[in-house]
Design brief:
185 residues, alpha+beta, Cyclic Phosphodiesterase, Chain: A
């Protein structure tokens, strides 16, 4: 039985990546250990499936197609910088999504369909783009200061007109993402 590590995502528009890269460069200037997401891999995760049986991909694709049929393209505003779980214990550095009600509706609709296939519903869902994972507390105060500086940064607007079912292959150099199927809104 063959398996694939999969997730469902909204890809970031290429024209917004240089703006995010400027923020990443600010964090890189701090002497600390942060594992950064490659610009080509920046995305907003709608659902992480983990390892799934490739025989079930058709069922999954049908549920996605069914759920997205009720949605039209919509605009999102990419804005702000923050952390998970909190400023005193930084694990993830992210860029936020302002006015995310349609993304939340899309997520909830998809999550409901996936639960019919046996996937657990997400206990919490946060609309964000992970830009880095902090690996050490070294110079945490400088990281916190940089996060505060970018807490209201305006990255820009993009239109969400598709979502992608992606395969993730983990390698020592980082994950490699491939589109398994793209669903137009």
């Amino acid at each position: 039985m063959s398996q694939v590590r999969a997730f469902l995502a909204i890809d970031l528009d290429d024209d917004l990546k240089p703006r995010i890269n400027r923020i990443i460069k600010e964090f890189k200037s701090i002497n600390t250990k942060i594992k950064y997401v490659e610009l080509a891999n920046l995305h907003l995760t709608l659902k992480f499936f983990g390892d799934i049986d490739t025989n079930g991909l058709n069922l999954l694709e049908n549920k996605i197609a069914e759920a997205v049929s009720d949605f039209e393209p919509f605009d999102i505003q990419i804005k702000g910088c923050g952390v998970f779980p909190n400023n005193n214990h930084i694990k993830v550095i992210w860029i936020g999504i302002d006015e995310d009600s349609i993304i939340r509706q899309l997520h909830d609709r998809l999550d409901g369909e996936f639960s019919k296939l046996g996937f657990d519903k997400d206990r919490r869902f946060s609309t964000h783009l992970t830009i880095g994972r902090m690996k050490t507390a070294k110079n945490k105060d400088k990281v916190k200061k940089t996060i505060e500086e970018f807490s209201n940064v305006e990255i820009g607007q993009m239109t969400v007109d598709r979502i992608s079912l992606k395969k993730s292959t983990l390698t020592p150099a980082g994950p490699i993402y491939e589109d398994l199927k793209v669903f137009e809104l």
